[in-house]
Amino acid sequence: MINKCVALLLFSALVPLSFGAQHVAVHPRTSFDSSEQETIREIIDMERQAREASLHRDADFSQRTLAEDYVAITPLGQVTTKQETVSARKSGQLRYDAIDVSDMVVRIYGDTAVVTARADVRGHQLGEDFSGPYRYTRVWVRRTGHWQAVSYQATVTQ
Fold it and tell me: Is residue 3 predicted with pLDDT exceeding 60?
């Protein structure tokens, strides 16, 4: 279970959308001005890029998009920093075969976006399978014109 949580942590650093029959909800309002609509599109795109980076073990994406004060919390309550996440991704010991995201909700609060979603993951770390369903929350903050992930927490679901 610990390897499953460590692997999910890396996934947490940049999980994202499978873009199949994808459903994204935006809360709490139903109408948004063009600026808010653009922000929502940017966040959805960041989630898509994060998914691709996870599938391709792209440590550079993590280096660019995780804030220096980034913190991730695994399903077992382990805390991981940006440097630990980038190092683990560079090691190549983690492999994702699939990441399918659904039930995504995007909430915008000025220069902060909160994403909640379900992720069905298939993968291995150090030969151990960590496949399964998860729920996650990721917080993005726009700093100097760029979105950075500042926080992530994942939970194993049934």
Answer: no
